[in-house]
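Thread title: Can someone regenerate the structure for this chain?

I was given the following input by a collaborator and told the matching structure tokens would be attached. They weren't. Posting the sequence so someone can regenerate them.
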Amino acid sequence: MREKHWSKVQLLHEVVTNPNITIKGTHSYYSDCWDHGFEESVVRYLHGDEISRQWEPKWPIDKLYIGDYVCIASEVIILMGGNHTHRADWFCLYPFMDFIEEAYVGKGDTVIHDGVWLGMRSMIMPGVTIGEGAIVAANSVVTQDVEPYSIVSGAPAKIVKYRFEPSVIDELMAFRIYDWPPKKFESLKRYLCSSDLTQLKQAAAAYDLSVHHG
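Best answer:
Regenerated them for you:
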């Protein structure tokens, strides 16, 4: 077993075994130093773990989708729908097994898009979508969808600001950066680690031209 230290991380594509979790790419990671790792500590109540994958599902199973280059800080919780059997619209909240199938209320799939950063001890509630490049501040509770390249904070999490001007965000989204071939991404990484959009556009155009004529 590898030595635990805060400087080391789990690459999600190397550790995920739950068939209801889909990981895009090979770069998304979890900082697992202070707990038992991504599947065991972060993802809660999702059918398909070592025990529940043997069960016959009683309802449609929600899925978790995580994009590439996603950074998940320590002790984050991604809450899925497996335990949503407490009906607020019923007089009694208790999940009686006699009526468990009626009690379950699905929240839908949870989607964390490319380039997202989930801050330490943030909690992602079921069925939300977190847009590309968004930041969720530490200790925040995300109860609704998060817009691309926004920063959200609080419980419930609300937008603090956007990382860039709307026109810049539109262009970044149009670039589909995280769908670039690995060679293009690697070649343009210097410009991605910057905030100069003009240089990025020029470098991307030059790269595409060289490939086209190559």
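The mean pLDDT is 94.
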